[in-house]
Amino acid sequence: MKILVCIKQVPESNKVEVDPVTGVLKRDGAASKMNPYDLYALETALRIRKKMGGSIHVISMGPPQAMQVIREAYSMGADSGTLLSDRKFGGADVLATSYTLAQGIKACGTFDLVLCGRQTTDGDTAQVGPEISEWLNIPCVADVVSLDEIDDEGITVSMDLPGETEVAKVSFPCLLAVDKDIFSPRLPSYVKKKDTRERKIQVLSLDDMKDKDETHYGLNGSPTQVQKIFPPEVSDKKEVWEDADDVLADKLFDKLVDMKFA
Length: 262
Hints:
The chain is of the alpha/beta class. The chain has one domain (2-221): HUPs (Rossmann fold), CATH 3.40.50.620. It has six helices and eleven strands. The strands form two sheets. Strands 9-8-7-10-6-1-4-5-11 form a nine-stranded mixed sheet, sandwiched between helices. Strand 7 and strand 8 (154-161) form a beta hairpin. The relative contact order is 0.18.
């Protein structure tokens, strides 16, 4: 079975600089890590490979430093990896991101199963995985919390939906967007890290894509544009009031009116 896992490098903290012109995060040089949800997707792939055999290919999109998360995936057990890296991919919204990843997946070959994390911690849209499946024209199941059955023809999974758990069986090829409750990710192996430090990472740019139209990628291919982005204000200002209960109640009410909360 050929499995592909989409992974992403995300900032380690919320203290990230924002480009004042484009309104997107400045990722170059920022402290980063693998998106936590993608760790669950990778662990799912490793367990399926153990049961069914086959190979695991990981794909990521980002600046050259995003190779770090592919190396991390190697140290966890992935067999091969591809980085989609081109300045023309920068500033992409979820639609352009999903299209770029889908084009990159097609450039890497055919796969029986594509796995994604439910969402990323720097975007929280939970849209990219399902959109990739649309571009690839394969069925998708999102919010997957358990694998129930798997054979050569397809896979049966459980989805965590509001108020209920739904079971679905899909045929290969398909895409699953997994949630954090599916498995506990394993730690990277130091031995695997040493053994794979020279393993090749394929790097693809726009010139390697079947569709080379620049208007389909990055900011040019993004129908949604960020108008303004800024870090939340942090304030430690406080007031302490001491008085009789009825006086405090009136004072609190006046304060809420003054702040236009009442």
